[in-house]
TrEMBL record:
<dbReference type="GO" id="GO:0003937">
    <property type="term" value="F:IMP cyclohydrolase activity"/>
</dbReference>
<keyword id="KW-0658">Purine biosynthesis</keyword>
<dbReference type="GO" id="GO:0005829">
    <property type="term" value="C:cytosol"/>
</dbReference>
<dbReference type="Pfam" id="PF02142">
    <property type="entry name" value="MGS"/>
</dbReference>
<dbReference type="InterPro" id="IPR016193">
    <property type="entry name" value="Cytidine_deaminase-like"/>
</dbReference>
<dbReference type="Pfam" id="PF01808">
    <property type="entry name" value="AICARFT_IMPCHas"/>
</dbReference>
<comment type="pathway">
    <text>Purine metabolism; IMP biosynthesis via de novo pathway; 5-formamido-1-(5-phospho-D-ribosyl)imidazole-4-carboxamide from 5-amino-1-(5-phospho-D-ribosyl)imidazole-4-carboxamide (10-formyl THF route): step 1/1.</text>
</comment>
<dbReference type="InterPro" id="IPR002695">
    <property type="entry name" value="PurH-like"/>
</dbReference>
<dbReference type="GO" id="GO:0004643">
    <property type="term" value="F:phosphoribosylaminoimidazolecarboxamide formyltransferase activity"/>
</dbReference>
<keyword id="KW-0511">Multifunctional enzyme</keyword>
<dbReference type="InterPro" id="IPR036914">
    <property type="entry name" value="MGS-like_dom_sf"/>
</dbReference>
<keyword id="KW-0808">Transferase</keyword>
<keyword id="KW-0378">Hydrolase</keyword>
<protein>
    <recommendedName>
        <fullName>Bifunctional purine biosynthesis protein PurH</fullName>
        <ecNumber>2.1.2.3</ecNumber>
        <ecNumber>3.5.4.10</ecNumber>
    </recommendedName>
</protein>
<dbReference type="InterPro" id="IPR011607">
    <property type="entry name" value="MGS-like_dom"/>
</dbReference>
<comment type="similarity">
    <text>Belongs to the PurH family.</text>
</comment>
<dbReference type="InterPro" id="IPR024051">
    <property type="entry name" value="AICAR_Tfase_dup_dom_sf"/>
</dbReference>
Length: 559
């Protein structure tokens, strides 16, 4: 505590306890009436005067409590359809007067203003109105003006005024008043912090909604100041390691509601997750679970056919596409049967029983899919340590999913997410070698290119069609500090299967050495962004080996 406020507050409490040199006054003005009658009754029983705005006053009067209408205090009726109710010196001077300043108190006396000692306010439900589709004038009327002014005034004067913005805090304040005749300074300060967060969050939501499709950028090149409305979804057991504290927040920009989870009658109670996620089974998600599940879910969006992406430590260890989720999973699993142990698997199609049976055979941490059939959930629920998430594949709305924010060393970096390449993107690819890919190789290169996008840089993917249909990664070299080492890792994992396979590189080859290694491993076709100053040498190496190579003109680094 600072500013000697505890001393001032103590004086205030003594005054109150001394039998009330004056009657204390509370201003109650709440859109959400939850708990307000109980709070008002507790105050009334302790001799407080209750002052309220229209709807709140009605609710209190209906409960048999005596209320002073705010209009009686201000001498004005509520104006402009409620746009101006409490915005008046008779209210705000009463809140803001510093009780230890004789000049402030004298000013109140001179102007017949009564001090306000407690403010309980919550705001017009702007976010709910936006989520329900309100626009234009109707939405604008949901922007609360007087409420934030009351909250901020009371929070500024927290040494003398109790500010309440959350009904969950009413009982403890009522108890403190009953027990001690006042609320300890530390608690008043804590309530003030909560109040400023409340109004800051409220305004951040309004700005984001008014900014529309570009909530972060505000529709213009990056704004100088940016307030992101974040809502806590969960306090996590710990972060990346047990000695790190962690919580999960989501960008709380109203958007269309996620589809209701299908009623399954299946085991487990549904646990809501961040916007668009519902946990259908299993223990709470950990920090690393979320990192991996989000990476897997993002990666699987890049494929149009049924796909399975298996992730370990935020980078894929196997990716498969095939006719069914089960067939896709078989390919992803067999790509690296060792690494998938304890992995996270995402699907881009609803999970059926056939896929669930295969998943339940091995130890996995998390499975993510757009939907999980009831019979599939029954099967997965055999695995006590598995977590099952349903994810909403639809657009996040208001551009919330379009942005990535991450912290590094006290700074925050924001970028547009690396969106999936559109379905026909390869029409823009440019063959640069004498040999051009066969139609089959084009398909395999398309798959490998989408797979390498999901991998940490430097990333190389060796991939091929499967004789029974579909495509799978054979070897992934990711997170390497040199590109040629990523090639070697991918080839080593692929082994003899690399002969005749294709290779994708997330960035250009700075030297021909990677192509020479690929050629030695039997790679038949390569896709890479191109753009190196040594492209000519790289192309010459491919030509010398009889390898087909195409340039995408776009890279997919992932740091
Ligand atoms: N205009 C004002 O002076 C004003 N003062 C308080 N309010 C809000 O009016 C609401 C309560 O209204 P009622 O008691 O009529 O239901 C609260 O959400 C409060 O934040 C106001 N409304 C909006 O700005």
């Amino acid at each position: 505590m600072t500013e000697g406020v505890g001393r001032e507050a103590g004086r205030w409490e003594q005054q109150a306890a001394a039998g009330g040199a004056r009657r204390r006054r509370a201003l109650l003005s709440v859109a959400d009436k939850t708990g307000i009658v109980d709070l008002a009754r507790a105050l009334h029983e302790r001799g407080w005067e209750l002052v309220s705005t229209g709807g709140t006053a009605q609710a209190l009067a209906a409960a048999g409590l005596p209320v002073t209408p705010v209009a009686q205090v201000t001498g004005f009726p509520e104006l402009l359809g409620g746009r101006v109710k409490t915005l008046h010196p008779a209210i705000h001077a009463g809140i803001l007067a510093r009780r230890h300043r004789p000049d402030d108190m004298a000013a109140l006396q001179d102007h017949g203003v009564v001090p306000v000692d407690l403010v309980a306010v919550n705001l017009y439900p702007f976010a709910e109105a936006a989520a329900a589709g309100a626009t234009g004038e109707a939405l604008r009327e949901e922007i609360d003006i007087g409420g934030p002014a009351l909250i901020r005034a009371a929070a500024k004067n927290w040494p003398d005024v109790i500010v309440l913005v959350d009904p969950a805090d009413y009982p403890r304040v009522a108890e403190a008043l009953a027990r001690e005749g006042g609320v300890p300074p530390a608690v008043r300060r804590e309530l003030a912090v909560k109040a400023f967060r409340h109004t800051a969050f409220y305004d951040a939501v309004i700005a984001a909604v008014l900014a529309g499709e570009a909530p972060l950028a505000g529709g213009e090149p990056w704004p100088e100041h940016l307030a992101l409305p974040l809502s806590r979804e969960a306090v996590l057991r710990y972060g990346e390691n047990p000695h790190q504290a962690a919580a999960l927040y989501r960008l709380a920009i109203p958007h269309r509601p996620a589809p209701a989870a299908p009623a399954s009658g299946a085991p487990g109670s549904d646990r809501p997750g961040p916007a668009g996620f519902v946990q259908r089974w299993g223990k709470p998600m950990s920090y690393n679970n979320w990192l991996d599940a989000l990476a897997a879910w993002r990666a699987v969006q890049d494929f149009a056919l049924p796909a399975a992406v298996a992730i370990k430590h935020a980078t894929p260890c196997g990716i498969g596409v095939a006719a069914t989720p089960a067939a896709a999973f078989r390919l992803a699993r067999d790509a690296d049967p060792e690494s998938i142990f304890g992995g996270i698997v995402a699907f881009n199609r609803p999970l059926d029983a056939a896929a669930a049976e295969m998943l339940a055979e091995i130890f996995l941490e998390v499975v993510v899919a757009p939907a999980v059939a009831p019979e599939a959930l029954e099967i997965l629920a055999r695995r006590k340590n598995l977590r099952v998430l349903e994810a909403d594949p639809g657009p996040a709305g208001h551009g919330a999913g379009r942005w990535e924010v991450r912290g590094a060393g006290g700074l925050w970096l924001i970028q547009e997410a690396d969106a999936p390449d559109p379905a026909g993107a390869r029409a823009g690819w440019r063959p640069v070698t004498r040999v051009v890919p066969t139609p089959e190789q084009w398909d395999a290169l398309d798959f490998a290119w989408r797979a390498v996008k999901a991998c940490r840089s430097n990333a190389i993917v060796v991939a091929a069609a499967h004789p029974a249909g579909g495509y799978r990664t054979l070897g992934i070299g990711a997170g390497q500090t040199s590109r040629v080492r990523a090639v070697e890792q991918a080839l080593a994992l692929a082994g003899p299967a690399a002969r005749g396979a294709v290779l994708a590189s997330d960035g250009f080859f700075p030297f021909p050495d990677s192509v020479e290694r690929a050629a030695a491993g039997g790679i038949a076709a390569i896709v890479q962004p191109g753009g190196s100053v040594r492209d000519a040498e790289v192309i010459a190496a491919a030509d010398a080996a009889g390898i087909a190579m195409v340039f995408t003109g776009r890279r997919h680094f992932r740091h």
